[in-house]
Write a structure and sequence with these properties.
The chain is α+β, with helices and mostly antiparallel strands. The chain has a domain of about 55 residues. It is built from 1 helix and 5 strands, in the order E-E-E-E-E-H. The longest helix is centred in the last third of the chain and has 12 residues. The radius of gyration is 15 Å and the shape is globular.
Length: about 90
């Protein structure tokens, strides 16, 4: 079977950093997945997709429903390869 059109391959998420107020545009390779929240008192950390500000290091969570599947799959692969935050 041939793929005739893979759909949009570019992912750009524009935002302003909450930490340093820099205006940023995250792309596909910037998205990673990690676990956020405490593990105290029975709380379970949540698995989130996020980007990190290159200027100040602040994490910015992304809405999973607004991230294309291809981008989530790449972030998931990075996690499997050991490149994620706990």
């Amino acid at each position: 079977m041939k793929i005739l059109d893979e759909g949009p391959s570019d992912f750009h998420h524009k935002f302003t950093c909450k930490g340093c107020k820099a205006k940023l545009a995250a792309e596909t390779n910037d998205v990673v997945v990690g676990y956020f929240g405490s593990n105290y008192g029975g709380d379970r950390p949540t698995r989130e997709y996020y980007v990190e500000c290159p200027r100040c290091g602040t994490d910015h969570k992304l809405d999973r429903n607004k991230i294309p599947m291809m981008v989530r799959q790449k972030a998931d692969q990075k996690q499997q390869d050991g490149g994620f935050k706990e």
